[in-house]
């Protein structure tokens, strides 16, 4: 008998982004009753070492805390695990090796979505942490499909992205949205057709200020939630068909 579906969410990075991801799971799941909603267990423990500082060599690695979260989600019976934090995917391979449940990669969900659009964008702007940009997951995944990536400059990251991101983390969401909107507008002005908001604080912040750039943006965490919902619906349909 197949293992019952139970999505594990390795969250806490940050806690607001994790709550937003849970909301995205609800939005992505068509349901007529409570019982049809996607079942999940969430490890929303924010005492994880700062991912940006770790990758910049300015702080300890978060891997021990991430492995602990993976262990707890497996103990809880997770059949699949999602990580609604882009930068934490730097440790994706190590976490996958430690997990009995398969991990779903946020870049795979994003590339799949862009390829499903009526008109595939030729050039997208990528808003992400320096660690995610340096890792190159999005750039490689998109380049393989003929999509060019426009990245923020070092100055733009320092002036708008970093203070905007940390403003969200301290609860000043609108302040963060104002800064991040400036970065988004700069990428569009330089030729990006659409934007990837590849840091989970960014879409939360832009929604707080009702930024018009959202109409040209894609949220990878939302797309990951949709991928999770797809797996749940496949399981749910099969379960109700045979019971």
From TrEMBL:
Keywords: Isomerase. The keyword Isomerase applies. Pfam families: Asp_Glu_race (PF01177). It comes from the Bacteria. GO terms for molecular function: amino-acid racemase activity. InterPro entries: Asp/Glu/hydantoin_racemase, Asp/Glu_race, Asp_race. Belongs to the aspartate/glutamate racemases family. PANTHER family: ASPARTATE-GLUTAMATE RACEMASE FAMILY, GLUTAMATE RACEMASE. This is Aspartate/glutamate racemase family protein. It comes from Kosakonia quasisacchari.
């Amino acid at each position: 008998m197949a293992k019952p579906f139970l999505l594990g969410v390795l969250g806490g990075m940050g806690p607001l982004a994790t709550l937003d991801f849970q909301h995205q799971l609800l939005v992505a799941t068509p349901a007529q009753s409570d019982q049809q909603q996607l079942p999940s267990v969430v490890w929303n423990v924010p005492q994880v070492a700062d991912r940006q500082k770790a990758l910049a060599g300015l702080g300890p690695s978060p891997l021990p805390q991430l492995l602990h979260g993976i262990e707890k989600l497996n103990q809880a019976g997770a059949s699949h695990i999602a990580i609604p934090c882009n930068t934490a995917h730097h440790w994706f391979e190590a976490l996958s090796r430690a997990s009995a449940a398969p991990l779903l990669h946020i870049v795979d969900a994003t590339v799949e979505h862009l390829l499903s659009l009526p008109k595939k964008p030729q050039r997208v702007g990528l808003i992400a942490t320096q660690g995610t940009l340096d890792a190159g997951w999005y750039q490689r995944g998109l380049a393989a499909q003929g999509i060019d990536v426009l990245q923020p400059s070092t100055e733009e990251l320092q002036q708008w992205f970093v203070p905007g991101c940390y403003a969200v983390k301290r609860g000043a969401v609108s302040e963060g949205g104002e800064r991040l909107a400036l970065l988004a507008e700069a990428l569009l002005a330089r030729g990006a057709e659409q934007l990837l908001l590849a840091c989970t604080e960014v879409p939360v912040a832009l929604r707080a200020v009702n930024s018009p750039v959202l109409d040209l943006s894609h949220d990878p965490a939302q797309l990951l939630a949709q991928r999770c919902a797809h797996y749940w619906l496949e399981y749910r349909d099969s379960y109700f068909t045979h019971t």
